[in-house]
Every structure is written in structure tokens, then in C-alpha cells.
Fold this sequence. Notes:
By secondary structure, this protein is an alpha/beta fold. Helices cover 44% and strands 17% of the residues.
Amino acid sequence: xxxxxxxxxxxxxxxxxxxxxxxxxxxxxxxxxxxxxxxxxxxxxxxxxxxxxxxxxxxxxxxxxxxxxxxxxxxxxxxxxxxxxxxxxxxxxxxxxxxxxxxxxxxxxxxxxxxxxxxxxxxxxxxxxxxxxxxxxxxxxxxxxxxxxxxxxxxxxxxxxxxxxxxxxxxxxxxxxxxxxxxxxxxxxxxxxxxxxxxxxxxxxxxxxxxxxxxxxxxxxxxxxxxxxxxxxxxxxxxxxxxxxxxxxxxxxxxxxxxxxxxxxxxxxxxxxxxxxxxxxxxxxxxxxxxxxxxxxxxxxxxxxxxxxxxxxxxxxxxxxxxxxxxxxxxxxxxxxxxxxxxxxxxxxxxxxxxxxxxxxxxxxxxxxxxxxxxxxxxxxxxxxxxxxxxxxxxxxxxxxxxxxxxxxxxxxxxxxxxxxxxxxxxxxxxxxxxxxxxxxxxxxxxxxxxxxxxxxxxxxxxxxxxxxxxxxxxxxxxxxxxxxxxxxxxxxxxxxxxxxxxxxxxxxxxxxxxxxxxxxxxxxxxxxxxxxxxxxxxxxxxxxxxxxxxxxxxxxxxxxxxxxxxxxxxxxxxxxxxxxxxxxxxxxxxxxxxxxxxxxxxxxxxxxxxxxxxxxxxxxxxxxxxxxxxxxxxxxxxxxxxxxxxxxxxxxxxxxxxxxxxxxxxxxxxxxxxxxxxxxxxxxxxxxxxxxxxxxxxxxxxxxxxxxxxxxxxxxxxxxxxxxxxxxxxxxxxxxxxxxxxxxxxxxxxxxxxxxxxxxxxxxxxxxxxxxxxxxxxxxxxxxxxxxxxxxxxxxxxxxxxxxxxxxxxxxxxxxxxxxxxxxxxxxxxxxxxxxxxxxxxxxxxxxxxxxxxxxxxxxxxxxxxxxxxxxxxxxx
RNA sequence: GGGCAAUUAGCUCAGUUGGUUCAGAGCACUUGGUUUACACCCAAGGGGUCAGGGGUUCGAAUCCCUUAUUGCCCA
Length: 878
């Protein structure tokens, strides 16, 4: 059998993914085993795989595959999110290309287009996840607008309404004039923008006096309904009780007094526009001011804007400034930076707007969710822990959640109006039930279905995804079904910190409200993927590599390793393709180690050599030590450290040391016992590596021998932890010091590896001799002689042991040797000085614990011994 | 403006309760090497005043104060 010297992932990965699917290893049904459950953070149904998804889902797959190997019933539920604003915007844009305007369509027609779009492009991302190796239970694929999901959402809305937690309010909301919908506070991004502060002069009615106000938004003067001054401001006492005249429209408005006005800012006079600013709205409510809304829903001016009617707010701002200047109203303009809210999705500048919206009261609902994460006996752990502070800050200041959106793509709010009054509605799961309620509420038995009109708005997408961990198991509609009881609470949630509040916090809220239990035990918050220059990866910068191309180039295993090697929990990951190259290189290394082993000819008559025996027992200890470290890293969600431990184990301990130790001479056969042991070791290495590099490991596993579907690596049994011999690891580390010493001498003295050397040593350490054969083999040392006296030749020290390799006279550079020894001596003496200073300090000796003092004394005697050997070496050279 | 976090080698990061030879890892770098698994490799090596300053302590990368810089969240 010839095995190619380069590992070709593209030949392998599709084959094993198909095999895993065929044998249904990813599918889970409740059974007697312990469940291990993850629900995927559902990506946008029309989305495409980007680096963030790759990182996220690689982590989830590692956790799931590991759980599977540990014998748990692993269930990873995949799915997608309908992403109301983003998707609706895409559909609207596509229709526009075809010359169709949304306003020409009925709701039903529009939804048909949207579902067609979803069926055509939706779920591409899930196909891409398969390329990455994601072992999701695809039979469970869910979508937040599946009929069962939507039914759950409506049920929850009705329930919360009936509990008095959902209410309708005329409120200032964040209006996105581009998407023509409201946004929740969390969907608004505050950005610093440079603008102007305009100083405008208002006339005082019945007087020649004027007053000056400062505003950043001169176009909103049409909505002014008062001027406000601070009652304590002596500059304006003369204005009290007077009225001002709004420029251009010449409306007369009252001058009111309120301590809210900041004496320092601007001129100390504030224009009040209740329809277009939250603070002004509060002032307006307090002083019973008129509310004049001057904008259309696309933020162009309406008829209140007079000759600016129909023009966009930013156009008007420029034009009106000019007009005001010409009319002498604009006194001056200052450059001014302020924060403006922009839409997360459309980037449009948010317009505060008053409208009727649906809200969910959060304060009481948040309480159990706060306790779960921050209490003493925390139910839910965040990794890394630092996010608990952020979580606390948000949850303790939580505001009511605006859950209505002026969109069609989403669950339509189940409120049915029977009249024109604000309160003329009932809330029910369907129109038939609504009719019953409406009849009861109105006392009008003659009402019919046609008299009811359902609210036009849809629910916020997060109002469906906050139920995700329950609704994917139908836990809302059938709260006691077998699946929800088995899989819920889920174990780990892996997601980005950017949706800690949007999603994570709300799932916790929903979990306690509807299952009286947490939705998950642990939340692993990944970092953002950035480029090498720390810039966020984005389409507009074009710095995001094509995920599928990366997989093509480096293999899914290579990309997975590349991502995880640089992704400590919670830290941003600075993505660099070189990392994938390292992952690919690692795959190739393991492949070649396997090639080496597979190439050996086995001879069952051969005795096991001593070197192999010792090497194997050392590696077994080393493997156990690494296994314990890996467990520890996993328990702290330090996946990159766990991977690095495995990387070093396989790269250094297995390939560089063990295989070199057991390797038979060229074209010589290997004894069966050693061969079998090496194969077992290789298999164990594959098992612990499988969660990180599933394809490569399965390929080698199946190459090692014929396996039945029941024997596939993906469902094999993870190596169990055993106690191990710490001493042998220490002794081996000492031996590697000797090996390195000899190698250094070979290099310095230009002694080829092919020429055997002889080694002499003064064994002050009285070390075990069992590694001598190993040292000999690895360094091509013909014989090791234990002596009492120095021997001529190149020398080196490991602790207080002194080693000599005789070399021909012309190779000895006495000067260089002395220089080297002097440097070593100086370092040792400095070290000794430090220790002795410490030990002669009476306060140290009397205060430090006994253990520490003993250690210091040991260090002292070791160093003294070492200095002795260096000094005597120097003496012989001179 | 308020809050949180960070600052350790050229880069990305570990460093647990203050105490093992604690100043580490990976990558990068330098030098040498066709040792029959692998040049996607092997071996050896250089490199840090632990951001600056002050303090507590027998002892500080680790605890406290302070300054600077950076990032995130909120208003």
C-alpha cells in the first residue's frame, strides 16, 4: 500500500461527512444516557457563512463531538432566524429591482414573495456549516417562522398580555426612516458625528425684544410648541409669562419655566419640540404642551414644514439654515460634535418619533434572570466571567422592551381591533377566540369576524428567538413533552458578546418565566473576528476572507485549528491565514507520523527492545498528564489551551520523541509488542484530537484497520483518566537535557550524526540509568561511561551532573570553552548570591513558611554543587 | 460624562492562593542540517526593567494607590 506523503483534505472531508450522515451519528433521541445539548445561535436565514460563524460553530462542534466521545447523548439543534428587518429589507430591494413596490402588494402577497425568497436562498448557510464539519442533528433543523414556532410565539404573547405584562403605549420610539419601522434601544448604535450648533433668534410677542436659542436641528422649529427657560436664570426674568414667535411659520408659543434647562449649555434658552425629542416630550407632558409632528414616515417634512414639504430632513437642515441666515434669524453657527443614534441594520439616522407601540414590562421578569447569573449560587455561568459586570449593568437598568415592528415579515401581533378607540381591541391566539372575547368585552353579541381587524404590526425577531431553547423542543405548546423534559436545560451556549442582551439575557428571562428553569448552564462568549490590523471584518472593508475558499485551501480541519489556536475565550481573534497554514501543517505532520508507523514491517519473533519499553512507559505517563491538563482546560472553556496541549503532545512528545525512540533501524522490522502499543497510542491521540480535527482523525482511524459503522471514531470511547508516574516524566525531562547537550556539541564541533560519539559523566545527581539506552539511541552515542574524574573533550552540565564528549584535539577551542564556562559561572554565582542574601535575611527565615525555606536551601546546595563543577572544568582547561 | 476591562518577547497570549530555577508557550526570527515519515520537516539558539511612578510585605508580574494608553458597554 502506498500512502501519499501529503495529506489532501479535499479528498477526505466530503467522504467522511457523507459517511457520518449515512450512519446517522448526529441524530439524537431521548434515551437513558445523560443528554448534552446545544442549540445553535440561529444565523439569519438569508445569511452567508462568515468568519464569526466559523469560529462560533467550530467551538460548538468541538464541544458536541467531545460530549459524544464521552458517551453522552449529544444533541446539537441547528436552525435559522427570520431576521425581520434585514430580510424584509432584502426582499423589498429585490422586488424593487423587478419593478414591484411593497405598497402595491397585500400582506399575503408580500409574505409569499418573502417565503419564496427564503426557500430559494435560505439555509445556504447551513449547507456551508456542513463543509466545516458541524455535526448538527439536521433532522431537527428549525426556523423561527416555522408554524409551530410561530404558534409558540403567539401563545407567549397572549399569555404575557393576560398577565398584564404587555401593554400598548404612545411613546417616543426609535424610528428607522429607511426601514420605516421602530427599533428597540439595543438596535440603535450611537455614533459621534460632527454637526453644527445653530443660534436662532426668536421674537417676543408684543415687544421688540428677542431671545436666542441654540439647536442642532433647525429644521424642527416647525414642531416647536414652547420655549423653556430655567426659573433660576436671572438673565431671562424679563421673559417670564411672555410668548415667543417661531420664525418662518410665525406661530406664537408660550415661554415656560423648568429647572431641567441647563444654564451652561447653549444660550440657556431651550426650544421645546415634544414630537421629536424624548426629553422635550417629557417637558411637554409636564407642561401640557401641544405636540406637532412635522415628519412623514420616511423623515421628509409633512405639511407643517410649509414650503419644505416633501423634502428630506437633512436637505431641509441645509436649506433652512440658509433661509434663516438670509432673514437675519440665524445669529451664528458653531461646530459641534454630538452622538446620534443610527440603525444597526440600515445605518440610517434614527428619528425619535411618537407612536402607538407594544411594550413588554421587563422589571419583574428580569429579577430571576439577574439572580441566576449574579447570585451566590449561580445557576448560569458566563465565560469569561468579566461579562457578568456588563450583564449586571444592563439588567439592573433594563427598560421596557418595544416588541412591535412596522414590518410584515414576522409574526403578526395577535391583537384584534373592533373599533376606532385606542382600547377597542382584544388579544387572542386566533380570530375566533378574539371574537368571543370581543363580544364579551363590548356586550355586543352581533359582532362578527369581519368586524375585527388585526393589528398590522409584526413582532420583533428577538421575541421569537428568546424562546429558541424551549421552542425547538416544542416546550411552549407542550410543556411536559418528553423531549423538552430530556434536553432542557441545555448545557452550553456559544455566541458573541454583541448579542448578550438582545438574545442571551432574554432567553434567560423567558426560561425562568416559562420553564421556571435556566435555558443553559454555561454561556461561552467568543470574541469578534478581526483582521491583522484589529479592524472588524466587514463587507465594506473587504477584509473578510471567503470562508469556503479557506476550507478549500487549508481543509476544514486546518481552518478549525487555525481559528482555535488564536481564540482564547472572550478575546477578539486576530485572523491571519498563516494560522490556517499552521493547522494544515499540523494535519500533514500527523498524517506522516501515521505513514511512518504504517510502513513498518512487523516481526512477531522479535524481542521488545529496552528503549521502546522505556519510551512507551514514559509516553503513557505523559499522555495521562496531558489528558488531565486538557480536562482542566475544558472545564474552564479554554479551548485554545486544550488544543495547544494536544498540539504539543502530538508534535513534540509523540512525533519528535516517542517515534524516534521506538523507530527501528532503516529497513528493519519492528517487534509486535511495540507496534501494538504504538498503534494504541496513536488511536488515543486521535480520540482526543477528534473534536478539533474530525476529518483527518476519522480518515487515519479508518486507515489503521477495517472498522464497522459501530467502530467509527466519531462514536468511540474517549480515553479514561488514570493515575500516572510523575517520576518517569521528571527523569525523562532530565534525559532530554542530556540529549540536547550532546546535540549542541555535535553542532558546535561539526560532528555528523552518522559518526558515533562516546559519553563520559560524573553522576553527582545519582539519576536513574534507565534512560541511558534512550539517550544513546537518540544521539548515536556508542557507550556511556560513569567516571569520577574529568575527561578531556567538550563538556556540558545538566544540574550538577557533568558530561564529557571526547573530541579530537584540533576541535577544541580552549578560548571559546573558557568564555562559555565563565558566562555560565557568572550566572550561577549571581543566582547563588540572590539566594544567600535571602537566606541571611533573618526576617525571611523567621517569617517565610518552612516549605519555602527548605526549597531555598535546596536551591542553594544545588547551585553550589554546580559552581564547583564549572570551576574545576575551568581549572583543567587552564 | 458614567461604568467595566486590559497593558508581560517582534506578534498573539498563558501565568491559579504573593513563595518550586518564574519570567513561560505558540508563531515569527537567527544558525546549522537531503539523519529514508514529514522542507507543510529536523536540531540548536537569540530575544522581555512584566506600561510609568509610588506603597504594603521577609518576598510582588500577582495586592493597594496613582499616571498614561487602549478596548468595550451605557448615557
